[in-house]
Specification:
The longest helix is centred in the first third of the chain and has 37 residues, at about 1-40. The chain has helices at about 1-40, 365; strands at about 45-55, 80-85, 95-100, 115-120, 125-135, 140, 140-145, 150-155, 160, 175, 185-195, 200-210, 215-220, 225-230, 235-255, 260-275, 280, 285-290, 310-320, 330-335, 340-350, 380, 405-410, 415, 425-430. It folds into two domains: about 45-210, Immunoglobulin-like (Sandwich); about 215-430, no CATH class. Helix content is about 10%, strand content about 40%. The strands form five sheets. Strands 8, 9, 10, 14, 15, 16, 20, 21 and 24 form a nine-stranded mixed beta sheet that branches. It has a seven-stranded mixed beta sheet with strand order 3-2-5-11-12-1-4, with no helix packed on it. With about 425 residues, the chain is mainly beta. The radius of gyration is 32 Å and the shape is elongated.
Length: about 425
């Protein structure tokens, strides 16, 4: 009996071990498979040296300058950075950025192409390279961080200045104007579809041409009235002239065509000329302003090499792109009163080319040529100013001191602005 019982127990034990083996074997094999998956070699990055030819777009058909009234092509970009994205479309994700310390693009070398080389740790794949260039302050030979702009990216519906690897995308890269700062020049350009292979060590990326993001505005006026009648029938002195906008751009995409992304609406003084201390010509009811007198512009003396005609004021500024609102985009306003804030006369500015973005501007705005978009790298000219010296670079052979053509405020008129892209034409506006 004991032998039988022992044999029976031994048989049961063997059957149990066989059952457990059959049950556990798939699990063990699965575990091994998972472990093998975990141990699969990950994609690794390696150092790649990349070279580009970087150039600011300053061809003859894209005239501009640090002084906005000049046709001379002067850019002074000295703060350049290249942002690297993995992917060749708008969904490409941010990897890293590389400062280009040796990029100095300043007049008279403003049309040169600069060859730059940098090294970055990159995985195998296709990449996009976004170059952004500023003009920043220099102290003791060192370029200081740019204080006018910062970059932002939309991560999960939240705008953040932190450009985050793996999350920030090329499509959502924005340039944002810092609070309290005036728009200054900034350029951007992109090169897509650069392939990095596992064995790539040196890659030639070709050329990246950077285009201007801001638009330009010129204000050039002559024969400014000294007095104007009020609604009460009295004559009141004009003490200030201003160019006022109903929209102001604060944010734009960093990819062409650099569309407006955020703007304010209201009354924004873009240009202001203080006339209160100037001499008057009572016989002609106008301000008497010698060509060398720049007090209305807030300057103690004329900018070096810049000429304007007698009895005129001259100024300019840069603007970030903005969509037309329900009000006229630009107006020229003459102010009076003790504080210089009493509106005596307003001139609406109309856009002859009537440039509007169909997908953003309201239908009502399309019917009114006083309402027009501010578009990147377009020049909006109230009056015509040629070169600093008065020469027109389009003349061949050069004809010195070609007369300027400011807006004459002694006439009753509507200001018309002609707008065309690429800075290739001064978009002449009239009142």
């Amino acid at each position: 009996m004991r032998l039988f019982a022992s044999t029976k127990l031994h048989t049961i034990f063997k059957m149990g071990c066989l059952f457990m083996a059959c049950y556990l074997t798939p699990l063990l094999l699965s575990s091994c498979s998972s472990e093998e998956d975990i141990r699969q070699p990950e994609t690794t990055s390696h150092a790649v040296t990349i070279s580009f030819n970087l150039r600011i777009h300053t061809e003859d058909d894209t005239r501009s300058g640090r002084q906005i009234w000049s046709r001379t092509p002067r850019q002074q970009v000295n703060d350049m950075k290249v942002y690297v994205f993995k992917g060749s479309d708008l969904a490409a994700t941010y990897v890293t950025s590389v400062p280009v310390a040796e990029f100095i693009n300043s007049y008279p070398n403003s049309t040169e192409t600069h060859s730059v080389t940098f090294t970055a740790d990159l995985e195998e794949g296709t990449y996009s390279f976004l170059a952004v260039g500023f003009e920043s302050d220099i102290k003791d030979g060192t370029v200081l961080p740019n204080e006018t702009y910062h970059l932002e990216n939309d991560v999960d519906g939240v705008w953040t200045p932190q450009i985050t690897p793996g999350l920030s995308t090329l499509e959502e890269m924005n340039i944002v104007l810092n609070a309290g700062k005036n728009v200054d020049e900034v350029f951007a350009g992109i090169k897509q579809g650069i392939m990095i292979n596992a064995d790539s060590k040196v890659v030639k990326g070709g050329s990246i041409i950077l285009n201007r993001i801001p638009a330009g505005l010129l204000g050039y006026f002559e024969n400014i009235p000294y007095q104007l009648p009020t609604s009460e029938g009295d004559m009141e002195r004009v003490t200030r002239l201003a160019v006022v906008a109903s929209v102001k751009g604060y944010r734009a995409r960093l990819l062409p065509p650099f569309n407006a992304m955020e703007m304010g609406t209201g009354n924004y003084e873009l240009l202001s000329f203080d006339l209160s201390s100037l001499s008057v010509d009572t016989d002609h009811n106008r301000y008497s302003i010698p060509a060398y007198d720049w007090r209305a512009e807030g300057l103690e003396e004329a900018p070096k090499g810049v000429r304007k005609i007698n009895n005129s004021v001259l100024g300019g500024c840069f603007l970030l792109p903005a969509h037309a609102s329900k009000n006229p985009t630009l107006q020229v306003v003459l102010y009076g009163g003790e504080t210089g804030e009493k509106v005596l006369k307003t001139y609406d500015v109309v856009c002859a080319d009537h440039i509007l973005n169909d997908n953003t501007s309201e239908n009502a705005a399309k019917q009114d040529n006083r309402r027009f978009d501010i578009i990147a790298n377009h020049y909006y000219s109230l009056g015509v100013k040629y070169t600093d010296s008065g020469e027109d670079p389009d003349d061949d052979p050069p004809q010195p001191f070609k007369p300027d053509d400011p807006i004459d405020l002694s006439k009753e008129q509507i200001i018309t602005i002609n707008v065309s892209p690429g800075w290739d034409q001064r978009h002449d506006m009239t009142l």
